[in-house]
Design goal:
The chain is an alpha/beta fold. Helices cover 26% and strands 21% of the residues. Pfam families: Lactamase_B, WHD_BLACT.
């Protein structure tokens, strides 16, 4: 496949909730029963190692999923709990797994925004953040979490959230990429929690790494991960070009841009699309390409400089 070929999303993921599937030596996955337009068929939790294992992303506040994970490791010892980021479909089940296993929790840190909230922005208490999460051990980029038969390197991948980490198993050429890269769809980047500037830089960081096989927080595994990352970066640049094309016809608000750019969009995703457009606009305003009156916020009107 040439690098400039279009790479289709893969929505073929027949895994059923609660079923343990071994996908590679030392890698098992369990799907949570929380399907939605944002989570696809649900959140995927991973079990790394054999005998003494790590669990990556315990999932949402879901007792049945916690039981499925604990049943999957019956007779084994959970030595590590790793969390890629603090959205409510990934981290809230952590206390259940910790209470049952006593394993320490590793993550970048508590939830935080990518930038300070503007005065004109209203705080949304229904946002998808798990604001109660606190890791036992805060992990920074480059730290290596060692277990019995595995060593996982923390790779800082902010963008989807400010505290997003991937966990690279270099020896197996595997990277557990959370929600930063998904094979079934693009990731949502919604300011102020998310940042398009950070997201694009993190794509570049992943592209430069050697790991080829990606395991994502939703949907199937992604072969040729760095090549897929290049596709995602091209997609984001094309989205930016579409925004600029629309603004070239005159100033517009974000709903107008969403209607012009996202043809045939599921109406349930219109709000998320608006925030992705805002993430691009924040970047364009910061670069001096686009202007708005006041702060770049979801309700603003935008024009070419």
């Amino acid at each position: 496949m040439a690098d400039n070929d279009d790479i289709p999303f893969n929505r073929d993921f027949p895994l059923q909730p609660g079923v343990v599937e071994q996908v590679r030596p030392g890698v098992r996955r369990v799907l949570c029963n929380n399907p939605s337009p944002f989570t696809f068929t649900g959140t995927v939790s991973y079990i790394v190692g054999e005998g003494k294992v790590a669990i990556i992303d315990p999932g949402p506040d879901d007792e049945a999923h916690a039981k499925a994970l604990l049943d999957a490791v019956k007779g084994e010892t959970v030595t590590h709990i790793l969390v890629t980021h603090t959205h409510r479909d990934h981290s809230p089940n952590t206390p259940r797994i910790k209470a049952a296993t006593g394993a320490p929790v590793y993550a970048e840190g508590p939830h935080r925004a990518s930038r300070p909230r503007f005065e004109s922005e209203k705080h949304n208490p229904e946002s998808g953040a798990d604001r109660d999460f606190r890791p036992d051990i805060e992990v920074k980029h480059g730290d290596v979490i060692e277990g019995a038969g595995f060593a996982l390197e923390a790779v800082a991948t902010p963008g989807h959230t400010a505290n997003h980490l991937a966990f690279a198993w270099a020896e197996r050429s595997i990277n557990f990429v959370g929600d930063h890269v998904m094979g079934w769809s693009t990731s949502i980047v919604a300011p102020p929690d998310g940042s398009m500037i950070d997201y694009m830089a993190s794509l570049e960081r992943l592209e430069q790494r050697p790991e080829q096989l990606y395991f994502s927080g939703h949907g199937p595994e992604i072969p040729e991960g760095p090549r897929f990352v290049r596709f995602l970066a091209r997609h984001r640049r094309a989205r930016e070009a579409s925004i600029l094309h629309r603004l070239g016809k005159g100033e517009a608000d974000i709903p107008t841009m969403v209607r012009a750019i996202y043809i045939g969009l599921d109406p349930r995703l219109a709000n998320a699309a608006g925030y992705s457009v805002l993430a691009h606009l924040e970047d364009l305003v910061a670069r001096g390409v686009v202007a708005t009156d006041g702060d770049p916020v979801i309700g603003g009107t935008y024009r070419m400089v």
